[in-house]
Specification:
It is built from four helices and two strands, in the order ααββαα. By secondary structure, the chain is mainly α. The longest helix has 25 residues.
């Protein structure tokens, strides 16, 4: 059961502080150590090897990309005609787009 007087008091306290959207956004996107680390890795020569949110997401995305490209390449090599079509055509387009718009101009 909601108690309006408690909510009103809580709202008045927070209204004095004000809402800071930037603080909330930074809290969600800033790199920070995981709350429940599986393995505690040491610092070697001042370099912190702990797993953070960004490192974990990097590993997950790298695994997905590796698996997808490996699957598409094996499927492409099993074809009788070595002409890319379907998903492999999309992969070829993506590689060419990255090469032409990012790698070569820089």
């Amino acid at each position: 059961v909601a108690q309006p007087e408690i909510h009103a008091e809580h709202g008045a306290e927070n209204a004095a502080e004000g809402f800071n959207a930037g603080e909330v956004i930074i809290e969600h996107v800033a790199n920070s150590p995981l709350d429940h680390p599986i393995v505690h890795l040491p610092s070697i020569a001042g370099i912190d090897f702990s797993v953070t949110k960004h490192v974990l997401m990097l590993w997950i995305v790298a695994g997905i990309v590796f698996g997808t490209v490996t699957w598409a390449t094996r499927r492409y090599l099993k074809q009788e005609r070595p002409v890319p079509h379907g998903f492999m055509n999309a992969v070829e387009w993506l590689v060419q787009a990255i090469r032409d718009s990012i790698a070569l101009p820089n």
